[in-house]
Structures are given as structure tokens and as C-alpha cells.
Design goal:
Largest sheet: 10 strands, antiparallel
Strand content: over 45%
């Protein structure tokens, strides 16, 4: 093993680094209960695991500024999935000419090999990604602060020759019952679409290529299926745990159904996160259906999941910015994690919901009086940049209800506002999130997105809606589905909730403010 050498301090000095953190902390749109780095750039969640009660969140990180450049692995830990403690950077790019990751330590996973926590990640040099390995320097350290790169890196140096591969990166690794290891990597091809390829090993260092488990051309897409693009990033193959009151999988792992989660990438641009649901056996994935993991498009991307010590399947995703480069540069920070989410199976599909721990952050509460939703009326007197909203709505045919987040003074329809609309048609019910009037800031991407829900939405089948607002972050959950969005109001702390609608009834409604979990005094390089 070769010890990771600390990267020299950047030329701009500690004073400039501290200024970057101060700029981020001064931004009123910086989330307070979603995880972000101290400042700078963050993208994919990596190396998720729970060990001895501690949840470890590694992440793609550039501590030098809010742009994707020379990616490191940031590291934070938590005992409750809510409050996170920053730890020293786990992986840094090698010095020029000294390693296959001199241009960045890209996405990967963490596993435990005979008691030794081990990272498998994509090493980037000159635009070429290879598979590399790092091992915890002290397996007894509960914080896993120091890591050592394997001197034999890369452990997989080239993509498989049998496929016309255009892209090749990202990892999903697990240990088989016989002690051997299986690794999946994401890929793109010139003529068959995205792919996930499989390798096996006895020691995590010597890998044998075993072919693809699924290639895009294998899937006979229906007209209504989403487009899978030409490269599948961040593959995550999971056994689907059954849904339950606590989100735990049963001891046998439920049915034989699996989900192959991946992020669709096309010509340098992230598209959305998708999942094939089906069965994995004998080294092949047999898809039965294709679904979205989040209906917000690129605003929930590159997710990764892990089993916690209670047997729950927990997922984090990366929420990129909708600001332009000038807005990001002014803010000094870029990128947010979703709240931790529980994954399970529901009606033959992959189901998504927030972890129940989030309810511990609730503070001031007001109930919304039940009754007809007709016209527009304030839902509560509560204002805040961090809100948790729960509603149960019944809709007549062609009825609708809107949750209007009014940012700043005035009444609904004036100024900045975000509209979450639930409407029932003849055949289905949909949730529509419209951020197009949420910000007057120039250069913000703001398009409405629609999420169908499986409920019919009539009086005997109410729509249950959960809305999580955290300054510039919006996550909406309904009927085991999720939609994510980014918004940038000038005065997020004054946000209040207005209800509007026609032919709709509210049976249950609550609004809570949410406690901040962001620590003071954070540093770019803890």
C-alpha cells in the first residue's frame, strides 16, 4: 500500500478559502437541513455505509471553488442521518505523473473486506477513467479518517474489448455468499446504448470480465418509456425490500425482484435517474419494467444506496444547481444532497419516501383546518425558509388543489412563488411542480415538471402529499414517488403557504418549520 500524500495548499491561501466559506454561509439560499459541503463544489454521493452506528457519507468534492475540477472525496459522518460532522478529505488526486487519478478521484463505493473498509473508485487521468482501490489505514478507527491507495492501481485498466465502449466509469460492488466479489461498472456504447458490465474477483484487486448484465438495445421500450440516453452512469443493483411501516427489509430480502438503478447521460449532459425493475440471476438482469426514480429530471442525479444496520435500504442523490455559472460563482457553493430516502417495493415498482428521522427536525407546527379548497386562502401563519408540509386531499373529477409557496410579501399571484398542483383527470391524477415564477434572478433554469401518481384521486382514494422546502431545495413526495426541484427566491425565510383549488377537499393538513442542522465554523479542509 502507498499512503495518500496530502495535496499542497492551493496558491490562493487559507484566507481565500475562509472567504469562500463565509460567502457560502452568507447566502440566504444555502440549505440548512440538506447536506452540503462547507463551500465549493459537490456532486455524486459516494462510499455510503453505516459502521458501528455511524453513517458515512463520502462525496465528490472540489474544495478550491464551486466548479467541477480536480475532484476529491469529501467525507462526513452522522449518527442520526440529520446532523453531519465534517472529516478530513478522504481521497485527493495524485500529483502530476504519480498516479492514474491525477485529474480526479471520481465516483465509487465502499465495502468491508474481511473487516477492512475498502473504497473502489474511478480514477481519472486525461479524460480516461479506470478502476482504482483504497483501503482504510486503520480499520479500527470508527471515523475512517485516513485512506491508503493501492500501489497496483488501476485494478481495471481498460474497458472490455468485446463492446464498442465510449464511456466507462462508476461502480457497484458486493460480496457473494462464497466470499468472491462482483463489480458492476457503467458504460456507454457506440451502437447499443447504455450498458452495465460485470466483473468478478477473489480479492478486489484481480478482476475477470464476465460480460454485460444489460445493454440498452436489449430493452424493448414501450412508447411511454423514458429515454435511457447513450451512457448509464452510477449503476446500483439492489434487491427490493418490501415496503413496511419502518422501511425495513425482511430477513429473506422479500421477493426475488431487483432494481437496476442508473443515471442516463448523453453527450456530456446528465438527463435523469431511471430504474429497471426485474430479476437478476446468473450474471444477467432481466427487466420487466422501466421507471423514473425521481420525476425532477437532472435535479436528482447519480444516487447511491446502502443497507443500514437496521436493514433499511437508504438512498442519497445529488441535486445540482439551476443557477448559471455567474450565480454559482457569487454564492461560493454548488450542489446539495437530497434528504436520505427509503427505497422499497410497492405494486411491483421501486418506491421512494423520506426517512422517518426527518420528523425530528420539526419545530413550530400549525394544523390546516379541513374543508373545501375553493379559491385561495392562507394555509397557516407560519413563515420560514425550511418547511415540512403534509396534506391529504380528495378531488372530484377535473378538480385541483394547489400548494402555493409565496416567497416574500404580497398575495398569491404576485412576486415570487412556487406552485405545486394536484389535479385529477378522467383516468389519472398528477402532481405538477412549477418553479417558473420562483425567482427573479437571471440565468435560472426553471421549468415545470409533472409526476403521475397511481391514485385516482377521488374521495375514496385521497392524494397524500409531502413537501420539503429548504431555501433553494424543494422535494415533493406522493404515492411512493418523488420529484425534486431547485428554486432561488430573493427572500426564502419569508415563505408562507397558500392553498388554492376547485372541487377539492382537504381532510388533513399540517405545516412545520424545520430546525437547521448546519454546523458553524466549517472549513473547506477539515
Amino acid at each position: 500500500m502507498s499512503t495518500v500524500c496530502p495535496e499542497p495548499a492551493p496558491a490562493d491561501g487559507r484566507g481565500v478559502q475562509e472567504e469562500l466559506v463565509m460567502r457560502a454561509e452568507a447566502d440566504p439560499l444555502l440549505p440548512r437541513f440538506h447536506f452540503t459541503p462547507p463551500a465549493g463544489w459537490m456532486n455524486d454521493p459516494n462510499g455510503l455505509l453505516q459502521r458501528d452506528g455511524l453513517h458515512h457519507l463520502f462525496y465528490q468534492y472540489n474544495p478550491l471553488g464551486p466548479a467541477h475540477h480536480r475532484i476529491h472525496w469529501g467525507h462526513a459522518v452522522s449518527r442520526d442521518l440529520l446532523s453531519w460532522m465534517d472529516l478530513p478529505i478522504a481521497l485527493s488526486p495524485a500529483r502530476t505523473g504519480e498516479g492514474p487519478d491525477e485529474d480526479g478521484c471520481w465516483s465509487g463505493v465502499a465495502v468491508v473486506d474481511d473487516g477492512h473498509p475498502t473504497i473502489v473508485y474511478s480514477a481519472n487521468r486525461g479524460g480516461r477513467q479506470t478502476a482504482a482501490l483504497a483501503v482504510a489505514a486503520d480499520a479500527a478507527d470508527p471515523l475512517l479518517v485516513e485512506w491508503e491507495k493501492d500501489p497496483r492501481n488501476p485494478v481495471i485498466a481498460d474497458p472490455p474489448g468485446e463492446l464498442p465502449v465510449t464511456d466507462f466509469r462508476d461502480h457497484c460492488v458486493w460480496q457473494e455468499p462464497d466470499g468472491s466479489w462482483t463489480q458492476l461498472m457503467g458504460a456507454g456504447t457506440t451502437d447499443r446504448g447504455g450498458a452495465v458490465v460485470r466483473y468478478t474477483s477473489s480479492d478486489l484487486r484481480n478482476w475477470t470480465y464476465c460480460g454485460p448484465i444489460l445493454v440498452g438495445s436489449d430493452w424493448r421500450a414501450a412508447p411511454e418509456d423514458p429515454w435511457t440516453a447513450t451512457m448509464w452512469e452510477c449503476p446500483d443493483l439492489i434487491a427490493l425490500p418490501p415496503s413496511g411501516p419502518d422501511g425495513r427489509a425482511d430477513g429473506a430480502g422479500g421477493s426475488a425482484r431487483h432494481a437496476l438503478i442508473f443515471s442516463a447521460w448523453h453527450q456530456g449532459h446528465p438527463q435523469e435517474t431511471l430504474a429497471f425493475v426485474g430479476d437478476y440471476s446468473e450474471g444477467r438482469f432481466h427487466p420487466a419494467r422501466l421507471q423514473r426514480v425521481d420525476w425532477g429530471g437532472r435535479f436528482c442525479y447519480a444516487p447511491q444506496s446502502y443497507l443500514d444496520e437496521a436493514g433499511r435500504r437508504i438512498q442519497f442523490g445529488w441535486m445540482p444547481e439551476a443557477r448559471d455559472e455567474r450565480g454559482v460563482a457569487r454564492a461560493g457553493w454548488c450542489g446539495v444532497m437530497t434528504v436520505p430516502r427509503l427505497l422499497s417495493a410497492h405494486d411491483g415498482a421501486l418506491a421512494v419516501e423520506p426517512v422517518p428521522e426527518l420528523a425530528r427536525l420539526r419545530e413550530r407546527h400549525e394544523s390546516i383546518p379541513p374543508g373545501a379548497v375553493d379559491g385561495a386562502r392562507p394555509a397557516s401563519s407560519i413563515c420560514g425558509g425550511g418547511l415540512d408540509i403534509e396534506l391529504e386531499l380528495s378531488l372530484d373529477m377535473c378538480g385541483y388543489a394547489e400548494v402555493v409557496l409565496v416567497h416574500g410579501g404580497g398575495v398569491a399571484g404576485r412576486g415570487e412563488r412556487t406552485v405545486i398542483r394536484v389535479e385529477r383527470g378522467a383516468q389519472s391524477c398528477v402532481v405538477r411542480v412549477d418553479p417558473s415564477h420562483a425567482s427573479h434572478e437571471p440565468g435560472v433554469e426553471a421549468r415545470a415538471v409533472t409526476m403521475p401518481v397511481r391514485t385516482s384521486g377521488d374521495a375514496d382514494d385521497p392524494v397524500r402529499l409531502r413537501v420539503l422546502l429548504d431555501r433553494s431545495v424543494l422535494e415533493v413526495f406522493s404515492d411512493w414517488r418523488a420529484v425534486s426541484a431547485r428554486i432561488y427566491p430573493a427572500d426564502p425565510e419569508s415563505t408562507r403557504v397558500v392553498l388554492a383549488g376547485e372541487r377539492a377537499q382537504l381532510s388533513v393538513g399540517s405545516v412545520w418549520t424545520m430546525r437547521s442542522t448546519r454546523r458553524a465554523g466549517r472549513r473547506l479542509r477539515p
